[in-house]
Design goal:
This protein has 407 residues and is of the alpha/beta class. It has 14 helices and 13 strands. Strands 1-9-8-5 form a four-stranded mixed sheet, with helices on both faces. It is globular and about 70 Å long.
């Protein structure tokens, strides 16, 4: 009996459960019948660009959001670009945005000819610290882009008031927060425009690139229609300079087939997040939910992030860092002359954050395995610990650029 138990213990020690960071193949098989039917319908129609599938998806997505209009486009990056141009942003204007975001947010600003003006983030939610925005406004400020990061929304109410007082439009980057709600309003519907990404791993993802812009403005909607299609008001009549940024019929059909599942998928993401938090809140710094959170990503902080990531990789757990280098320290944007130490909360977070596996098809067994491996690593390496009890200490970084030591 003793030998039998020892064998079980030995097997447990060497057993490695593969937990990928994401699994798009598993996702496809969960909706295979609906997606295959949708793709076949498009292929047999012979209509591939700006057709009925796009129109149907735009209408259904607008209804889901509670918005007046949705305009599909080729990517989330171009969704932000189109929204900025539709809002009147152009050469040498300034756009206030966080540096802690995927660089495509900043790329879209650069595409307009405008300049990004970087603002710091909250230490608890990683989204724009709206109290820091007003000091960044100048005569050249033509838009503010709050990024709803990881699935959690920016505190929009004070930002909207500031924008209204200053005459500056708010353009929401909703790439990571499709389905999140703020004061009963869907993400993307509070500002002048909301820009969405349908990159495959998103909460609502295409099987390729795709994006969309929502708005409640008829004038904004009509301009978006022109801008995404070479500036045409009708075929071969170009009223302004536009681009080719169209959500094709196959991707529209695939998105339309998946849209009815979005609420269910977001609920599963929340359940996975709750399980992670229950198991890890006393071990690592877990997400703080100030607004509705749809957990595109589940991001922790550790006192030894790199060591923990390596350990988890050896144990078969996929992780990523979103994002290791903030935009203001990227080589492409050093010309903005924002130096290390200028955004202390952002820089502090990027040295500690780690994204754990998060997708709706993740099993409870896989989640528990990830939790167990993190606990084991912290047990042998106490320096990796960064629990919720350290939250107050983390906040002190907002008043000092000096490194903050957490236990």
């Amino acid at each position: 009996m003793l030998c039998h138990q020892r064998l079980i213990d030995d097997l447990r020690e060497v057993f490695v459960l593969n937990v990928p960071f994401g699994d798009l193949k598993v996702h496809y098989h969960s909706v295979k019948q609906e997606v295959d039917t949708a793709v076949k319908r498009v292929l047999e129609s012979g209509y591939y660009i700006l057709g009925p599938e796009l129109k149907t998806f735009e209408e259904n997505f607008a209804q889901y959001l509670g918005a007046n209009y949705v305009v599909g486009c080729a990517s989330g990056t171009e969704a932000i670009y189109l929204a900025l141009v539709a809002a009147g942003v152009g050469q040498d204007d300034e756009v206030i945005v966080v540096a802690h975001t995927a660089v495509p947010t900043i790329s879209a600003i650069s595409m307009t000819g405008a300049q990004p003006v970087f603002v710091d983030i909250h230490p608890d939610t990683y989204v724009m610290d709206v109290t820091k925005v007003e000091s960044k406004i100048t005569a050249r400020t033509k838009a503010i882009v709050p990024v709803h990061l990881y699935g959690q929304m920016v505190d929009l109410e004070p930002l909207m008031k500031l924008g209204a007082d200053k005459g500056i439009p708010i353009i929401e980057d909703v790439a990571q927060a499709t389905g999140a709600v703020y004061k009963k309003a869907q993400a993307g519907t509070t500002g002048a425009f909301g820009a969405f990404s349908f990159y495959p791993s998103k909460n609502l993802g295409a099987f390729g690139d795709g994006g969309a812009v929502c708005t409640n403005s008829t004038e904004g909607y009509e301009r978006l229609l022109r801008l995404r299609n070479y500036g045409q008001s009708k075929r071969y009549y170009h009223d302004e300079i536009g681009i080719n940024s169209r959500l094709d019929e196959i991707q529209s059909a695939i998105l339309g087939a998946q849209l009815p599942h979005l609420t269910e998928w977001n609920a599963r993401r929340k359940a996975i997040a709750a399980r992670y938090t229950q198991g890890l809140r006393d071990v690592v710094f877990t997400p703080v939910e100030h607004n509705d959170h749809v957990f595109h990503l589940y991001v922790i902080q550790s006192g030894d992030r790199d060591g923990m990531q390596q350990y988890l990789s050896e144990k078969g757990v996929g992780t990523l860092i979103h994002y290791p280098v903030p935009a203001h320290l990227q080589k492409a944007y050093r010309y903005r002359d924002v130096n290390e130490g200028d955004l202390p909360v952002t820089e502090y977070a990027t040295k500690r954050i780690l994204s754990l596996p998060m997708f709706p098809q993740l099993s409870d067994e896989q989640v528990d395995y990830v939790i167990d491996q993190i606990k084991q690593y912290v047990q042998v390496n106490p320096a990796a610990k960064a629990s919720q009890a350290d939250f107050a200490a983390a906040k002190t970084v907002t008043s000092s650029v000096s490194p903050v030591k957490l236990r």
